Amino acid sequence: MRQTRPTTREEPLISLRDVEVHFENERGLFDFGSDPRVVRAVDGVSFDVEENDVISLVGESGCGKTTLGKSVIGLQRPTGGTINYRGHDMWEIRDGTSDANIDWKDVRTSLQIIHQDPGSSLNPNRRLIAILSEPLRQTHPELSAGEKRERIYSLLERVGMNPAADFAERYPHQLSGGEQQRVALCRALLMNPDVILADEAISALDVSLRVEMMDLMLDLQEEFGTSYVFISHDLSNARYFSQHGGGKIGVMYLGELAEFGPAEDVINDPQHPYTKVLRWATPNLSERKTGRLPMRKIDIPDPVNPPAGCRFHTRCPEARAVCKQQHPAATTVGDQSVTCFRMHDDHEYWNSPELEADEAAITADD
Ligand SMILES: Nc1ncnc2c1ncn2[C@@H]1O[C@H](COP(=O)(O)OP(=O)(O)OP(=O)(O)O)[C@@H](O)[C@H]1O
Predict the structure, then answer these.
(1) C-alpha 63: how far from its chain's center?
(2) Cα dist. 297→218, 258, 263, 321, 364 in Å?
(3) Number of domains in the chain
(4) Is the shortest distance between the CB of 115 and ligand 1 below 6 Å?
(5) Which domain holds residue 248?
(6) Which residues are paired to 17 by β-bridges?
(7) Per the domain annotation, does 150 fall within a domain?
(8) N or C: which end of the chain has fewer CB within 10 A?
(9) Ligand 1 atom closest to 233 (CA)
């Protein structure tokens, strides 16, 4: 079913280097004369998406997961850094200034998205057969109406929507949330994509259906040869998806990647203090259910004015004076990339005084 697109040898499918996305917001009514508010949604992020890859991005609300995910699939232009598609600058392809022989339309087609609320992205006035014929018309214009119908029926059956002939004639509102999400997945897969961005795609489903949907996505991965960028605020879902898919987890904090690496390592041997906090706070992953949350403050700082030095220092249980002054760079530890001074045995961090306990630690019962 899969067609191969031209690639530069050895190049990752998508490669992000030092990517930054800053949003310049309008001044408020009473901000006359002040600088526009700049939201630093993503800062200094680098990683690769390989063929058949599974990458989960996890972190608190507002940490930049969606903005980063949209950058990966070409829906958000970065304000800094580079994003390459098969070795060529994605935005040069978009602007027509690339020397690569790749059409932007093909790039867009190969990078698909499924949303948290599939109902809103499926046309309510069209039957499923029409909704699913559309991508096939684009990717396989040579197919007859009968051949398209056959492919659609077989995919609907594959995702458990039986009898397919019955489902194909329904409108989206005649489906459950889980069925709508399956249709959204089918539609994305029929575009023959290199990457599907699944943005909180299972969050709205009943807990009992989440694992089923993740299993289905991973089952179909091999068949369609697609990679996933899976966004979740829930570390246990990210773990399930990336571990079963043999992939990686990226832990985001205030627009930056705190830790990135194989799911197994990030979960079982977290290195960044923030990953440890997330793990501690995730019921399925931690033995401790009560006690003191290992964090100095509970409030998330403002991405318009992120803390100087390490962005996590205001909440980090391990923060020392140097963390207020210097910004750590990502360091490779085994297969993980970790943005914390503690990764260097000889860093001045170790001789730096601990930060005053300006806030009492918050207890999990608060
Ligand atoms: N178009 C925009 N204009 C201005 N600010 C934006 C825009 N899109 C996102 N932001 C801001 O960028 C930051 C990151 O938002 P983003 O949606 O990427 O985070 P997220 O981690 O996906 O959050 P959530 O889990 O709540 O969806 C937030 O502070 C958000 O308000």
Answers:
(1) 11
(2) 37, 18, 27, 16, 12
(3) 1
(4) no
(5) 14-125+171-351
(6) 82
(7) no
(8) C
(9) 25
CA distances from 339 to 133, 258, 260, 327 (A): 46, 5, 9, 9
> Which of 19, 22, 63 is the best mutation target for the ligand 1 pocket, counting ligand atoms within 8 Å of the beta carbon and taking the most?
63
Q: Give a yes or no: residue 3 inside a domain.
A: no
* CA dist., res. 237 & res. 216, Å (int): 14
Q: How many contiguous H segments (helices) and E segments (strands) does the chain have? A: 13, 12
Task: Give yes or no for a contact between 254 and 300, defined as CB atoms under 8 angstroms apart.
Answer: yes
Q: Is the CB of residue 25 below 6 angstroms from any atom belonging to ligand 1?
A: yes
Cβ of 303 closer than 6 Å to ligand 1, yes or no, is yes
CATH code of residue 211? 3.40.50.300
- Spatial neighbors of 130 by CB under 8 A, at least 6 apart, are none
Q: Is 187 helix (H, G, I), strand (E, B) or coil?
A: helix
Q: Is the CB of 39 under 6 A from ligand 1?
A: yes
* Ligand 1 near 41 CB (within 6 A): yes
Residue-level pLDDT, tens digit, the chain, 366 residues: 444 455 555 789 999 999 999 999 765 555 555 567 899 999 999 999 999 999 999 999 999 999 999 999 999 999 999 999 999 999 999 999 999 999 999 999 999 999 988 888 899 999 999 999 999 998 899 999 999 999 999 999 999 999 999 999 999 999 999 999 999 999 999 999 999 999 998 888 888 889 999 999 999 998 899 999 999 999 999 999 999 999 999 999 999 999 999 999 999 999 999 999 999 888 777 666 566 677 777 778 888 989 999 999 999 999 999 999 999 999 999 999 999 999 999 999 999 998 876 543 433 333
What is the side-by-side strand order in the sheet with 195-199? 111-114, 195-199, 227-232, 54-58, 248-253, 256-262, 336-338, 331-333
- Give a yes or no: residue 149 inside a domain: no
Tell me whether residue 141 is in a domain: no
